TrEMBL record:
EC number: 5.3.1.27
Gene3D superfamilies on file: Glucose-6-phosphate isomerase like protein, domain 1
Source organism of the structure: Oceanobacillus polygoni
Record protein name field: 6-phospho-3-hexuloisomerase
Keyword check for Isomerase: yes
Keyword Glycosyltransferase applies: no
Keywords: Isomerase
Length: 188
């Protein structure tokens, strides 16, 4: 007998609820404040985490913030009044370590959203937000379980966390979806 799709969906939702409830409010608040205090916001991540970071940059752009995805051809250079927000479950992705080192050498702030705040990128970061999830690496143990493969729970939690952070920033800046829609792409 094949398991129903709704059974898997319900289990995924339970996992997401558990993981997101364990995110520390002060860490989220520190990230929000640092973003809003920065002149420009740069985001980066590898693989699916990078896709979640890109969606976060898009929403910040809709809010009127100067948000950029590292590596895009129209992305400017980072300066000391800017922040680099990295998305990495392991906190050990080599390309992201290099970005963090470069940003720090320029004097920019570095933030990491991760499963592993004690990681190499975490050690370089000015602030971290821990998302309690199962690491994608085989044999790695964070104490969190998931029926989902690899880093799915982290990546889904990352998207939800970033969307919740956007809602908090919208509230703080007294914006709503209608206001933001004015910055939506219109050459589609």
């Amino acid at each position: 007998m094949t398991t129903q799709t709704s059974t898997f969906l319900n289990e995924i939702l339970k996992e997401l609820n558990t993981a997101t409830e364990l995110i520390t409010e002060t860490e989220a608040q520190d990230l929000m404040n640092s973003i809003l205090e920065s002149k420009k916001i740069f985001v980066a991540g590898a693989g699916r985490s990078g896709l979640m970071a890109r969606s976060f940059a898009m929403r910040m752009m809709h809010m009127g913030l100067d948000a950029y995805v590292v590596g895009e051809v129209a992305t400017p250079g980072i300066d000391e009044n800017d922040i680099l927000v990295l998305s990495s479950g392991s906190g050990g992705t080599k390309t992201l370590i290099s970005m963090a080192e470069k940003a720090k050498s320029i004097g920019a702030k570095v933030a990491l959203v991760t499963i592993s705040p004690e990681s190499p990128i975490g050690e370089l970061s000015d602030l971290t937000v821990k998302i309690p999830a199962k690491p994608k690496e085989a044999g790695a143990d964070s104490g969190h379980k998931s029926i989902q493969p690899m880093g799915s729970l982290f990546e889904q939690s990352l998207l939800l966390f970033y969307d919740a952070l956007v809602l908090r920033m919208m509230d703080k800046k007294e914006q709503d979806g209608e206001t933001m829609f004015g910055k939506h792409a219109n050459l589609e």
